[in-house]
Write a structure and sequence with these properties.
With about 110 residues, the chain is of the alpha+beta class. The chain is built from three helices and four strands, in the order αββαβαβ. It has one domain. One of its GO terms (cellular component) is cytoplasm.
Length: about 110
C-alpha cells in the first residue's frame, strides 16, 4: 500500500501518522468550495484498518487520533465531517457480523 501511495500521481492518500502503525494510511482531506477556495465545506477522514498480514481493526489510538484531529482543525464541529474505513467485506463481516451494508463503512461527525 505504501508503494502505491507514493507512486500514484492521482492518489490523495497519505502515509501516517507513524504512531498509528501498523495502519499505514490515516489522513484528512479538506474539501473547499468551488466558488471560494478559501472556504472549507467539509472534512473527509480516512482510517486504515490494516489487512494483508495484519488484523483488520480500527484501534483505540486511531479513534483518539480522529477525535484530536477533529477538535484541532474543526473545533465544535462547525463544518460537516465524513469518515471512511478501509475494510474488506470479510473484515467487516468478522468485526460486525450483524451489520453488513455500505452504511457501516462510513460515519458522520
Amino acid at each position: 500500500m505504501k508503494d502505491e501511495i507514493e507512486k500514484s500521481n492521482l492518489s490523495y492518500s497519505e502515509t501516517g501518522p507513524m504512531h498509528l502503525w501498523p495502519s499505514v494510511s490515516n489522513y484528512v482531506l479538506q474539501v473547499t468550495s468551488s466558488e471560494n477556495p478559501n472556504s472549507t465545506v467539509a472534512f473527509l477522514y480516512f482510517l486504515d484498518s490494516g489487512g494483508g498480514s495484519y488484523p483488520e481493526v480500527i484501534s483505540n489510538a486511531q479513534v483518539r487520533w480522529f477525535e484530536q484531529k477533529s477538535e484541532e482543525i474543526n473545533p465544535g464541529s462547525r463544518i460537516p465531517e465524513l469518515g471512511f474505513l478501509a475494510y474488506t467485506k470479510q473484515g467487516l463481516q468478522e468485526s460486525c457480523p450483524y451489520v453488513w451494508s455500505p452504511q457501516a463503512m462510513c460515519w458522520i461527525h
